[in-house]
C-alpha cells in the first residue's frame, strides 16, 4: 500500500495564508462591530460608556489569557521602554478615537461613515510627509483626488448639494476626528508590536485603552443618563466585545506581517459591507450612489499606498 502524501505548508506560505484570513476577517467584522455599537446607542446606552465597557470587558477577559500565554516565553519585565511609551500614547489615542467613532455611529448612517474611513489614506500620507518626509508623487495626488471625488457620491444628499457645510453634520465631524486619531494610533500600535509581539500588542491596546476610556467617561459625564440595560442589550454587548476582540487581534497580526499603509488600504474594503448593512438594517437610501463612491474612494486609497510613496 502506497502511503498518502503528507502536505507540509512552508512557514512563509502559512503566514501568507493567515494574513489573508486575518485581512478578510477584519474587513467583515468591522462593519458588524459598528452595527452593534449603533444598536446599543440606539437603545439608550451612552456612547462613552459603550466604548469604555468594551475596553474593560476585553481587559478582564482577553488580556489575562494572552498575558499568561506569553509570560513564560517573554516575561513582561523584559519589555522595553518603547512598548510602555507607545502603549500609553496608543491607549490615549485609541480611547479618544474610538469614543468619537461610537458617537459618530450613534448619530450617523453606516452607509456614509464606512466609506468616509477612506480619508484615512490621506491622513496617513500627510503624517508621512510631516514626520517621515515621505512626500506623495503623481500617483499619490491622483489617489487623493479619487478619494475626494468618491466622497462626493457618498456625502451628497438629494436636495442638499455637497459643500463645506457637510462638516456641520455632527456625525461627519465625529467620524473625521476618530479617523485622524485612530490613524495615528495605528502607527503607534505598530511600534508597540515591533517592541514586543502580537499578544502583548493586544494586551496593551486593551489595558491602556481601558484605562483612558474609563478616565474619559468619568471626566465627561453624558448629557443624558444611559438607560438600564436589558437582556437584549447584554446580548448585543457580548457580540460587540467578541467582534472588537477578534478584530483587534486580527489587526495586530496583520500589522506584524505587513506595512501599516498596505493594511489600512485593504481594510477600506469594509466600506462596501457597511453600505449594505446600513441599507438592510436601517433602510438607508441611495445605496447605488454610495457604492459607486465607496469603490472610487477605495481605488484612491489603494493607489496612494501602493504607488503614492517616494
Description:
This protein has 310 residues and is mainly α. Residues 1-8 have low confidence and may be disordered. It is globular and about 55 Å long. The chain has helices at 11-42, 47-71, 81-107, 110-116, 120-131, 138-155, 170-194, 198-219, 231-257, 260-267, 270-282, 287-307. The relative contact order is 0.21. Helices cover 76% and strands 0% of the residues.
Write a concise synopsis of the structure shown:
The protein is mostly helical and about 300 residues long. The chain is built from 12 helices and no strands.
What key phrases describe this protein's structure?
310 residues; mainly alpha; 12 helices; disordered N terminus
Low-pLDDT parts are 1-8
Total of DSSP H or I helical runs spanning 4+ residues: 12
User: What is the averaged pLDDT score?
Assistant: 78
- β-strand percent reads under 5%
Helix content: over 70%
Number of strands: 0
Main sheet overview: none
Please tell me what the overall shape is: globular
Please state the oligomeric state of the protein chains shown.
single chain
Radius of gyration: 20 Å
What is the N-to-C succession of helices and strands?
A: HHHHHHHHHHHH
What structural class is derived from the secondary structure elements? mainly alpha
First and last CA, distance = 59 Å
Amino acid at each position: 500500500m502506497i502511503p498518502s502524501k503528507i502536505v507540509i505548508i512552508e512557514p512563509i506560505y502559512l503566514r501568507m495564508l493567515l494574513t489573508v484570513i486575518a485581512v478578510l476577517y477584519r474587513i467583515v467584522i468591522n462593519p458588524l462591530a459598528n452595527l452593534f455599537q449603533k444598536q446599543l446607542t440606539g437603545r439608550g446606552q451612552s456612547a462613552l460608556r459603550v466604548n469604555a465597557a468594551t475596553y474593560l470587558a476585553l481587559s478582564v477577559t482577553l488580556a489575562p489569557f494572552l498575558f499568561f500565554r506569553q509570560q513564560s516565553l517573554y516575561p513582561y519585565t523584559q519589555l522595553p521602554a518603547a512598548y510602555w511609551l507607545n502603549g500609553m500614547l496608543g491607549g490615549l489615542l485609541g480611547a479618544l478615537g474610538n469614543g468619537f467613532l461610537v458617537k459618530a455611529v450613534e448619530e450617523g448612517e453606516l452607509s456614509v461613515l464606512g466609506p468616509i474611513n477612506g480619508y484615512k489614506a490621506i491622513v496617513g500620507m500627510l503624517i508621512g510627509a510631516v514626520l517621515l518626509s515621505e512626500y506623495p508623487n503623481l500617483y499619490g495626488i491622483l489617489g487623493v483626488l479619487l478619494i475626494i471625488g468618491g466622497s462626493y457620491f457618498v456625502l451628497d444628499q438629494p436636495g442638499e448639494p455637497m459643500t463645506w457645510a457637510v462638516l456641520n453634520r455632527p456625525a461627519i465631524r465625529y467620524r473625521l476626528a476618530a479617523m485622524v486619531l485612530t490613524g495615528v494610533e495605528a502607527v503607534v500600535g505598530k511600534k508597540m508590536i515591533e517592541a514586543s509581539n502580537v499578544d502583548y500588542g493586544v494586551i496593551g491596546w486593551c489595558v491602556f485603552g481601558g484605562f483612558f476610556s474609563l478616565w474619559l467617561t468619568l471626566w465627561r459625564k453624558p448629557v443624558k443618563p444611559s438607560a438600564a440595560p436589558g437582556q437584549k442589550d447584554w446580548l448585543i454587548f457580548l457580540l460587540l466585545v467578541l467582534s472588537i476582540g477578534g478584530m483587534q487581534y486580527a489587526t495586530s497580526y496583520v500589522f506584524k506581517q505587513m506595512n501599516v499603509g498596505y493594511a489600512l488600504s485593504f481594510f477600506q474594503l469594509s466600506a462596501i459591507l457597511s453600505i449594505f448593512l446600513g441599507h438592510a438594517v436601517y433602510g438607508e437610501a441611495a445605496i447605488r450612489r454610495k457604492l459607486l463612491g465607496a469603490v472610487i474612494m477605495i481605488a484612491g486609497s489603494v493607489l496612494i499606498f501602493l504607488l503614492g510613496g517616494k
